[in-house]
Amino acid sequence: NQVRRDAITAVAAAVPPAYSFDPGEEPGAIFGENVFSLSVMQKRLPKGVYRSVLATIEKSVALDPAVADAVASAMKDWALEKGATHYAHVFYPLTGLTAEKHDSFLDPVGDGTAFASFSGKTLIQGEPDASSFPNGGLRNTFEARGYTGWDVMSPAYVLENPNGNTLCIPTIFISMTGDALDHKTPVLRSQQAMSTQARRVLELFGHTDPDNVVAYCGPEQEYFLVDRHFYDARPDLINAGRTLFGAKPPKGQEFDDHYFGAIPERVLAFMCDTERELFKLGIPAKTRHNEVAPGQFEVAPMFERANEASDHQQLTMTTFRAVAKKHGMECLFHEKPFDGVNGSGKHVNFSIGNSELGSLLVPGDTPHDNAQFLVFCAAVIRMVHLHGGLLRASVASASNDHRLGANEAPPAIISIFLGDQLADVFDQVAKGGATHSKEKGTLIIGVDTLPDLTKDAGDRNRTSPFAFTGNRFEFRAPGSNQTVAAPMVVLNTIMAEALDHCATVLETAVGAGTDFNKAVQQLLAEIVADHGAVIFNGNGYSDEWPVEAEQRGLKNLRTTVDAVPELITAEAVELFGRYGVFSEREMHSRYEISLEQYILSVTVEANLTLEMGRTTVLPAAVRYQTELATNASALKEAGLEPDLGDLQVVSGLVADLRSGLAQLVEAVGHEHDDDALVTATAIRDGVLPAMAAVRTAADALEGVVADDLWSLPTYQEMLYLL
Ligand code: ADP
Ligand code: MG
After folding, report:
1. Domains plus CATH for the chain?
2. Which letter does DSSP use for residue 345 in this model?
3. Which residue from 313, 285, 301, 297 is spatially nearest to 96, judged by alpha carbons?
4. Most buried pick, 122, 133, 158, 647, via CB within 10 A?
5. Could you tell me the pTM of the whole model?
6. Ligand 1, atom nearest to 350 Cα
7. Higher pLDDT among residues 298 and 123, named by residue
8. Which SMART domains match (predicted)?
9. Exposure on the CB side of residue 520, measured as CA atoms within 13 A
10. ipTM, 2 dp
11. Which residues, at least 6 apart from 492, have a Cβ–Cβ distance to it below 8 Å?
């Protein structure tokens, strides 16, 4: 087939673009070059103004509007020096994408000239027309205004473009009524709620007036790279981000020869280029390597405060897409671009702490520190047990449904892996308090006599969705395409609840005269007794686990449709309301939007399946069928007995394909119910199986139809040719 042959020829000839790295350059010289960072502010702002901004960042003091003009003016000068012509308020609508509205710095003065201006007011607040962003019923279109507000905690930066640079200002996005329309607002709110409760616990442990506690997030991003020539020949990749057709290649990932192998040269050039761009933006990219599936890779930055990490994560994805294009490739973030090989996740490494105390989820040097550590760990156990459903809901999407529970990613059951050492400690706590660490002798529990805990991360359990890894927990269920903000909001909020519980129990006990050590011990024992069911150190991919999980009362929310209703249970609404993270309206809007997005994305895929099935797969199959039939009659005419086996196979599959398409037409044609959950359920149960039927027939045809009639690039080509 000409299309595929041309693509293969072009791929073979691909040369990475010239790379701008100067070997003499000092490492780190470009880091943060395009960021209006604290150090830039310190140099450029009057002392008082700088101190005021710093107080906002470090101590969460509200931004003094009086300083905004000074900051704006310094920011503008800096940006103009960096070649910026425009500024943009960057926000994070509920599509999960990044949105930006650009405005020119130039203001006409009235005499035919223009003047670069940028006031404090423009810095602090923007007013994009927001009517086409999802709002889940929060905003009437006649009142389509949305407001963006500068998030002082996340630094502004200049984004380079050959046609002129842009000053980007990370902002929250809210409606006129103050409802959150974005992912950033709740991160900030939940962050604050968590900090308040964490500080209460810290005070009980004798820290007077501790600094704000923040959530840290280290997101590991998996992705696929595909050459653009193949990508352009696959309407499914272009429109849905994943292949809707494609037979398994003869060689999949079973050899495990790609994982951590040498990085292909073309990919390495891409990685170097992306890192350079990320460094300029102050994004601390740290590790890069091949992933399990062929054509799959990973990048992970150093962890940062959740708010910044989340903005940086979005920017990382944008950068990867842009740089891939420059290198003649396409970067795929879909959770399951190719059936039959591993999909992509985005592990969210989560901890809480501050610069004064470090991570609060790391065992300390003294028994006292370890008691504190155990309380924070116990809070995590409680939160995951009570609110696993919310965690599942925070990573629910049509695309992530292909991954969770598919024996390559953690199951949809949210459990917690503690590792041997910690599991053992909690085990002992549960057994009445007498405790000893695994390798040491018996000790009587009490804050002063807690065992030494080694800081060894211990063994790894790759099958757990929520694993303790030595100084943090790794939430492995988020999808590669998702924003980390959604899980971070849930993590912060449920952490706030669990810490609130711990603080209250301890305060009450101490107030009633109980010895603090004893109160801690009782609290830990109570949490293990009430919530120990969520601890699971076994194989999460096994067939036995779902059965056992059910006996333990853990939820198994297999699909988005099962998971999203968790957002609007009375309990959830009360919880998010109590900590000021979401109002009931906001929860409902998020619920609606999640379902809308699900319906939209499956419907797009279904229509594409129909189109490609009819216009690409069926014609190829029918042509081949005709070829075989013509051959058979020619043989007959020549007096030979034709073997009709192939023709029968192809005809059978063509019939299957036709009936699959008919089934899909009917499923897609179902009228949508007013209730989004009803529609989403119907789509899951009707459209998805029909799509699968079409695909089964089409993929089987790919294996028998003459190769020169097949125009869709094959898995083999897309996964192995880079
Ligand atoms: P692995 O592949 O072993 O899970 P990686 O090095 O790929 O580890 O990624 C680990 C991620 O966890 C990095 O982003 C790292 O910065 C982050 N991380 C490390 N310590 C913490 C912590 N205390 N809190 C949050 N994230 C952390
Ligand atoms: Mg990793």
Report:
1. 1-29+218-354 (3.30.590.10), 31-182 (3.10.20.70), 200-213+357-482+493-582 (no CATH), 596-720 (1.20.120.1560)
2. B
3. 313
4. 158
5. 0.94
6. 25
7. 298
8. Gln-synt_C
9. 24
10. 0.97
11. 187, 190, 191, 193, 194, 215, 306, 581
